Amino acid sequence: MNNSFSFNNDDVQQTEQTLSSFDLRFFLVRIFYPCLLVWGTIGNALCLRVLLSKKFLKNSTCQYLAVLAVIDILFIVMRSSKHVYKLFRSTPIFNTSKWICRILTFFSSALAHMASWILVIVSIDRYLIVTSRYRRHSSSVNRVFCSTSILIAVVLLCNLYYFFILGKKIFTFC
After folding, report:
1. Theoretical Cys-Cys bridge with 174: which of 28, 101, 108, 170, CB 3.0 to 4.6 Å?
2. Domains and CATH numbers, the chain
3. pLDDT digits over 57-107, tens only?
4. CA-to-CA distance for 171 and 174, rounded, in angstroms?
C-alpha cells in the first residue's frame, strides 16, 4: 500500500517538473525571444546612433563598439528569429533544408565568435593607446578597418567547416 503511494507521488513530481519546463519553454518562446528581438535591436540601433556621431567617431574604441553593435543586431536577429519563426510554422527553420541549416549555423557561429573577438581587440587597442604605443602613427579609422577586416576573414575561414559537417549522417542537428 505504501509502495503505491510512493509511485503516485513520483508521478506527481515528474508531472510538475514537466509542467514547469513547459512553462519555461512557453515563456522563452512566446515572450522572451520576441522581446529580445525587438528591444535588443532598438537598443543597439540607438547605441549605433550615438557611437556614429561626430563627437565619438574619432575614438577607435567607439568605432569598435559600433562594429560590435552591428554584429550584435545581426546575432540577435539570427538567433531570436529562429524562435519567433516557431510561433508561425510547425517545423523549425533549420529543418527546411540542409543548406538553410548550414548557412544559419555558419553565420550564427561566426557572429558569436566575432562579437567575442571584437572585445579582445578593443582591450588590446585601449592598452596600446594608454601606453601610447601608436597614438601618433596611423589614424584610428585605418586601424579599425584593418583589424576588423582581418577578424572577419579569419572567423569566416575558421567557421567554414559547418558547410562540410552539417547534414552528414553522424550529425543530426540539420
Report:
1. 101
2. 2-165 (1.20.1070.10)
3. 888 899 999 999 999 999 998 888 777 777 777 777 767 778 887 888 899
4. 7
